[in-house]
Amino acid sequence: MKLWVTYLRAIAAMFCWAITFAWYKIAYETYRPYEVVFLRLLLATFVLFAIILLTRHREKIQGRDLWRLMGVALFEPFLYFNGEANAMQYVSPSFASIIIATIPIFAALGAWLFLKEKLSVYVILGVIVSCFGVVIMSFGSGELRATLTGIMFLVLAIFGAVGYGLLVRPLTLKYSTLTIVAYQTLFGAIYFLPMFLIIDGKHFLNVEHTLTGIYTIIAMSLFATIGAFVLFTDVIRSLGVAKSNIFTNLIPVFTVVLAYFILGDRIGIRTIIGLSLTLIGLLLSQYTDLKKLKQRYLLGRSVATQRT
Question: Which tens digit of pLDDT belongs to each residue from 41-74?
């Protein structure tokens, strides 16, 4: 896959996840959290396996890899969602943003330790600068409040996100993205089924369903559960875990920009500084690859000039 296409996929995936935060507010007007996540996964499972059947894109999964796919789904969406969703009851959004921003740091460390990914100086500096940018944005967006319970839930979310990347990376080298995401959503739906039935099942049966709520869940399923994971899995395959996860810091960037254009939120000087550092860190982490991309572009132009 061409490098610039990989970058576009990463940016598109982050945009899909960022806009989901706005859709959550709409969906929660009718449905509860476990209803939303379970229905998203259930719909995505049917869509993905329908595509597999229609395109005859069936891949035989080895027994040990099936267990790994179950592990991928356990880490994300199950552990990550439970950690993040429950944490928000005990910490402020600003504090949560700061803690979640450390995911690229732990992902890079995990990739280096367990997957033997090489971390250049540019990658390390890029991760640090980008995460620092998110922290500055978070300081400018509200109070910092947290309890020990909330912090533990956030640690669980980080554990889920990092574990997902480390487990899915080897699978991307053996199976197609469609197969990986299909099984990931299937097992994710199975994991969330008991919680859906026990915690929100009665509410789902008695709630007055709305077309707005249903359409929102469908949009979240298609764009965030299917679209974003399909795109990001390809990015992990191409860039590895460390370089891929730093793109997650684009989520708060998109969130701030969307809030400015859609909700009319103000963007202060601290937010601008944070946004700038986040983007600088992202570019810095990809410096080596961007340099190669520029060299190929210049070489292509040179060859084209010679031909003319």
Answer: 999 999 999 999 999 888 999 989 999 999 999 9
pLDDT at 84: 85
Number of domains observed in the structure of the chain: 1
Q: Whole-angstrom Cα distance, residue 222 to residue 43?
A: 8
User: Residue 142 above 80 pLDDT?
Assistant: no
Nearest CA-CA partner of 246 in 223, 279, 203: 279
How far is Cα 81 from Cα 84, in angstroms, rounded to an integer? Answer: 5
Domain that holds residue 277: 3-307
CA geometry: angle 256, 262, 263, nearest 5 deg = 80
| Average pLDDT of the residues of the chain | 89
Q: Which two tokens stand for residue 204?
A: 């789902």
Q: Whole-angstrom Cα distance, residue 260 to residue 267?
A: 7
* CA-wise closest residue to 160 among 248, 276, 65, 237: 248
CA-CA distance, 23 to 26, in Å (whole number)? 5
Residues 198 and 12 sit within 8 Å (Cβ to Cβ): no
Alpha helix (H) residue ranges in 198-307:
201-206, 211-220, 229-239, 241-245, 250-258, 269-285, 287-307
Confidence of residue 301 (pLDDT cuts 50, 70, 90): low
